[in-house]
Structure to design on (536 residues):
């Protein structure tokens, strides 16, 4: 089988990229997804709050996904579910894709372009090394969400949540409304990891305590977890035992961060960024391997599906351009993270081109000035009342100056 | 009376400073858009939320289907609405937008499906 483009993942990124390829006259597309049906993680995000930017209305995750799925079906884009890509082998001008499909078995597909849209996965207990026993009842917040919202099984009755990422907050509300007792959300940082609106409508609304600068210092229980020890963090370490306290529980949910899923990308020889854990890309969202593009949470962890769709659209457009015979690349220059900025994406961009950049602050700050500048001039200067690591910034640079050697994004305190 | 609120209408999460007298706002600071004003007005009198949950479904490939209140409903009814939803069961096929419970708890708001599920 041959296709012009293979899209790996049928979540908002993959669907968005495929629709954009189609829009740009690429008709021979295959989307692969390992789940039973397309939609990706949105299908388990049954809460509202999606689509405000893109559709100007408030949708739930499944509703948002269904709009793209319907469009993909109308445009006859092939979606192969219950299938996964095992390997991507680089040929000259094409890729040999090895696929495992429940329906078709082990098959080879030859494609000219690959779009990586595999999403991300959750950090788990192994990633954060919590001391204690290893009983049942410790699961990631997103897995608990899938158990509940897709399979109809509540994970437990007495819940403690470690980490204040959005999924953890959303699950605190969901479990409370279903009758579980959510005892606390524990956050190691001095500020919440999730969006402000989720702190309000998921914790404040139900008077669920949020312990900032605290962590879990021990897990107890033999068959099932029966309690956790909560410790304040002082000077980067657990506080003394007299300051710690125990919370009884039968379930511990972990909402401690997401990592872009890129095992396949590595097999294909795609270079990854040590900060984003996603591919290093240029302004066309093309990776270090010509013909392989990336978007969505596989590229960088987003906080809004709307931003994923926007990024995917750009990815599909540039992949179509590449397939149409490409264009001569202009001189490329690096984009750098300056003061208070964790990373900037893309990592390099072409002089003379319009580029939308994404970046996140390292820590919260108030009354700062965002500047985007080259080695010679300031391109953007904007006051920001409040910045949070949980909120990604996306800024459009209308044209990167021809003579620029680099671009730097930074936040500085507002001058008096 | 003075109250600090965080607007939940969009991910911006504007910090609102509301001063009010009874159910009437006398001053409002911090909202970046008009939705903040509506939110503050409701929040000081009768806070409302959209409620989402799942309902059991028969004949589909999955055991539950996601649902939501079509519009926001009084916040204090959220747990009761979830309870109502847990008592019923629907049969596939169901289309996103289909009414699952009409006028749930007399709120005048329907509980609707948010996902399409065919017969398995």
């Amino acid at each position: 089988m041959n296709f012009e483009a293979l899209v790996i993942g049928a979540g908002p990124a993959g669907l968005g990229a495929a629709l954009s390829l189609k829009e740009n006259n690429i008709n021979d597309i295959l989307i692969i997804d390992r789940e039973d049906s397309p939609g990706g993680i949105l299908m388990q995000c049954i809460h509202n709050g999606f689509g405000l930017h893109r559709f100007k209305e408030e949708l739930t995750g499944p509703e948002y996904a269904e709009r793209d799925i319907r469009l993909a079906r109308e445009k006859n884009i092939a979606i192969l579910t219950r299938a996964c890509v095992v390997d991507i082998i680089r040929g000259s001008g094409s890729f040999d894709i090895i696929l495992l499909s429940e329906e078709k078995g082990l098959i080879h597909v030859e494609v000219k372009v690959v779009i990586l849209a595999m999403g991300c996965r959750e950090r788990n207990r192994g990633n954060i090394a919590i001391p204690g026993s290893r009983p049942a009842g410790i699961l990631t917040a997103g897995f608990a969400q899938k158990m509940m919202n897709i399979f109809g099984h509540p994970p437990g009755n007495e819940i403690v949540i470690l980490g204040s990422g959005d999924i953890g907050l959303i699950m605190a509300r969901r479990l409370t409304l279903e009758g579980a007792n959510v005892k606390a959300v524990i956050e190691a940082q001095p500020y919440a990891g999730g969006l402000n609106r989720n702190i309000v409508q998921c914790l404040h609304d139900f008077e669920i305590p949020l312990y900032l600068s605290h962590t879990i210092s021990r897990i107890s229980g033999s068959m099932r977890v029966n309690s956790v020890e909560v410790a304040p963090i002082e000077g980067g370490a657990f506080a003394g035992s007299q300051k710690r306290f125990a919370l009884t529980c039968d379930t511990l949910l972990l909402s401690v961060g997401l990592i872009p899923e890129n095992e396949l990308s590595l097999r294909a020889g795609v270079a990854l960024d040590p900060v984003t854990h996603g591919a290093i890309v240029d302004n066309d969202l093309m990776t270090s391997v010509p013909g392989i593009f990336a978007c969505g949470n596989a590229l960088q962890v987003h906080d809004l599906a709307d931003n994923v769709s926007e990024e995917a659209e750009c990815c599909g457009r540039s992949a179509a351009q590449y397939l149409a015979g490409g264009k001569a690349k202009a001189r490329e220059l690096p984009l750098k993270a300056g003061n208070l900025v964790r990373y900037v994406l893309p990592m390099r961009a072409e002089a003379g081109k319009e580029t939308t950049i994404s970046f996140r602050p390292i820590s919260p700050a108030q009354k700062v000035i965002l500047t985007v500048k080259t080695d010679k001039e300031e391109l953007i200067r904007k006051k920001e009342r409040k910045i949070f690591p949980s909120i990604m910034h996306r800024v459009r640079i209308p044209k990167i100056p021809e003579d620029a050697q680099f671009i730097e994004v930074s936040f500085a305190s507002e001058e008096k | 009376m003075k109250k600090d609120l965080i607007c939940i209408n969009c991910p911006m999460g504007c910090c609102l400073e509301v001063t009010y007298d009874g159910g009437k706002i006398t001053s409002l600071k911090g909202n970046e858009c008009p939705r903040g004003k509506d939110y503050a007005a409701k929040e000081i009198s009768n806070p409302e939320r959209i409620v989402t949950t799942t309902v059991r479904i028969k004949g589909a490939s999955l055991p539950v289907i996601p649902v939501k209140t079509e519009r926001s409903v009084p916040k204090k009814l959220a747990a009761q609405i979830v309870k109502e939803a847990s008592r019923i069961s629907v049969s596939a096929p169901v289309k996103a937008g289909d009414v699952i419970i009409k006028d749930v708890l007399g709120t005048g708001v329907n509980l609707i499906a948010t996902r399409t599920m065919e017969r398995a």
Remarks:
- The interface with chain A takes residues 5-11, 13, 15, 49-54, 56, 61-64, 66, 68, 75, 78-79, 82-83, 86, 96, 114-116 of chain B (CB under 8 Å).
- The longest helix of chain B spans residues 35-45.
